[in-house]
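Retro notes (design track)

What went well: tokenization of the new backbones is finally stable.
What didn't: we kept losing track of which sequence belonged to which structure.
Fix going forward: every design gets posted as structure first, then sequence, in one message. First example under the new rule, 358 residues:
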């Protein structure tokens, strides 16, 4: 219809001196808010995120000041949730992971492995931004939604914009970066603001494996920090034998399940020489952050701390590497016994393995 504005979601931002409603959208000229049967029109302030990877459309926060008589609105268009006391110390969830974005997704086995691993690591809520997926993937998402672990957010940007499938316009032209990943991450940040103590922003094929527990990170680096985890690439092209006495579990029963078996991939790429950008991912207290991008924080109330690493199981980044140049990392194998048992149970429950499979 010729509009250059796409409203994604709306949340109350109480942390600034002027209370306001933040609308994640491209542009805006004014705000129309109804308060006590009166229409209030005001000029909106626009904060455009600089990190849009060169695509024509990018993320912006459009903030609407609230009328003095309506500082605690009861309803917000598009997204509504119970208003929580900003000072509360109790949260329904301790650790939320935000997956963005699921588009033509068929990697069922790795999704199940990821969701089970995340639970081992203390995650008790996962928000999945989904455009579309296979029938088997939907069955798994419904299963975890019924268990209360997963919240699926329909992500329909592709109905309004030409979404790119890659990170940069020269790799795949489009209106907006990688299926609208940045708006999804910011939506998850605000969606989790008073529902989760910590939030991790990463993809389904990534695992943040901290050597120390999050309370220890707070003691070491301080609270209200963004903890950045350096990416370690696990090439999915190679299934190499681990050094003795370690062995890979025999999992022939999974061969007919769509997707990557992460337990077959226990070698990482050597870290590229600095100062090559290494695709950090983050865990943060969402109440200390105003805006995020794919690999970090754009605006926050505190500083950042770099710690530990993240494992990323996907096709290799350094395409020239040979198998003998990879470095063994056996941390996933420490979880293999529990993981195999848990994954088998989920696959059986979803009809992806025979009921007698162990």
């Amino acid at each position: 219809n010729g509009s250059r504005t796409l409203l994604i979601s709306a949340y109350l931002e109480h942390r600034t001196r002027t209370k306001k409603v933040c609308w994640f959208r491209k542009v805006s000229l004014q705000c129309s808010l109804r308060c006590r049967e009166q229409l209030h029109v005001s000029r909106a302030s626009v904060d455009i995120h600089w990190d849009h990877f060169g695509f024509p459309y990018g993320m912006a926060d459009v903030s609407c000041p609230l009328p003095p008589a309506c500082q605690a609105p009861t309803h917000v268009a598009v997204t509504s949730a119970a208003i929580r006391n900003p000072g509360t110390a109790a949260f329904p969830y301790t650790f939320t992971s935000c997956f963005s974005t699921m588009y033509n997704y068929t990697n069922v086995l790795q999704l199940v492995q990821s969701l089970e691993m995340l639970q081992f690591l203390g995650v008790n809520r996962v928000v999945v931004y989904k455009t579309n997926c296979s029938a088997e993937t939907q069955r798994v998402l419904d299963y975890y939604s019924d268990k209360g672990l997963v919240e699926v957010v329909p992500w329909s940007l592709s109905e309004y914009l030409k979404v790119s499938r890659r990170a940069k316009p020269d790799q795949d032209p489009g209106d907006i970066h990688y299926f609208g990943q940045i708006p999804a991450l910011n939506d998850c940040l605000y969606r989790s603001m008073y529902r989760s103590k910590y939030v991790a922003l990463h993809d389904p094929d990534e695992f943040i494996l901290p050597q120390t527990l999050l309370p220890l990170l707070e003691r070491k680096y301080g609270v209200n920090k963004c903890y950045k985890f350096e990416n370690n690439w696990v090439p999915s092209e190679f299934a190499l034998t681990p050094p003795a006495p370690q062995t890979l579990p025999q999992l022939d029963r999974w061969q007919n399940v769509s997707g990557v078996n992460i337990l077959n991939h226990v070698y990482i790429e050597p870290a590229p020489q600095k100062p090559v950008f290494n695709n950090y991912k983050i865990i943060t207290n969402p109440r200390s952050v105003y805006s995020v991008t794919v690999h970090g924080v754009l605006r926050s109330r505190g500083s950042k701390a770099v710690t530990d690493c993240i494992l990323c199981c996907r096709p290799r980044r350094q395409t020239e590497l040979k198998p003998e140049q990879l470095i063994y990392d056996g941390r996933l194998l420490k979880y293999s016994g529990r993981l195999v048992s848990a994954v088998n149970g989920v696959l059986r429950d979803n009809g992806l393995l025979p009921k007698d499979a162990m």
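Added context from the reviewer: The radius of gyration is 22 Å.
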